[in-house]
What does this fold into?
Amino acid sequence: MVIRFSALGDVAMVAPIVRRAAEQNPEVEFTVLSQGRMADLFAGMPENVVFYGVDLKKQSLREIVAGLGRFELVADLHDVWRSRYIRIAMRLKGARVRTIRKGRIERFLLTRHLRTQTLKHTTVRYAEVLQRLGLSVSDLKAPLQTTGEGVGIAPFAAHKGKIYPLERMEEVVRLLSESGERVVLFGGGKKEQELLETWAKKYKGVESIAGKYRLAEEMEIMRGMRVMVSMDSANMHLASLVGTRVVSVWGATHPKAGFLGFGQREEDCIQRDLKCRPCSIYGNKKCQFGDYRCLDISPEVIELRVKSEE
It folds into this structure.
């Protein structure tokens, strides 16, 4: 059993590792335990992968454990109180358990600028848990497709420190529109959807799909894009999961923390080289200067990178 409940981007990074493990260990049956809404991330998996979705708001941990039965091996890729409860219960039933090593000290040192080396990628940390259970997990490289059409843009993220100023992102949309690009906008909440609709009406060749499709359908649309523009957000990981190149914009966070999209290239990371970066692993801290200068990036820089094929 592989456990990871959230967040969407983190669970998306579990999927390619489970696929690799299932392909390389065909005699093993893998059960992925996550929230039911994550099921689309594990569609089309090998036959020895089962998705077990739960509703953490409606089901108690005791009920979840009762419905799981027994497992020989348990990989806790989350290490939060819910997953700890479940892994302890599984251990009491005889399972051999291994837990992710998140590198919390390394992350602390990185955000205090006492460490400069790039940390292990999160997918590598996931793979290491399965390897410590005796499973074969190798070949973690992921080729990106380059045959799609159009540019997808996902301008939002969970925290302000990761969101490129929206007036500048609108300028990116305008530049791409005027150059003849087809642009598809991805978003989240109602206010975000309304903003993207105004952009779609304002510029030629721009369409907003925010709030119109299920997760699986959005991922298929991403699969058809030549390139996605995204923040350090779940959309970067969703696009990576379907093999689409991502030009990612980074502010308070940094790709060297280990959260770059699976298979993505550092050359496609748009970021400023500032001494204060990264100030946060998740982008949830207020800017010490109050101006989020890390996101002071020209729209033309993003446009040029989108059009680059190098």
In short: The chain has a mean pLDDT of 96. The two ends are 40 Å apart (CA to CA). The chain has two domains: 2-132, 151-307.
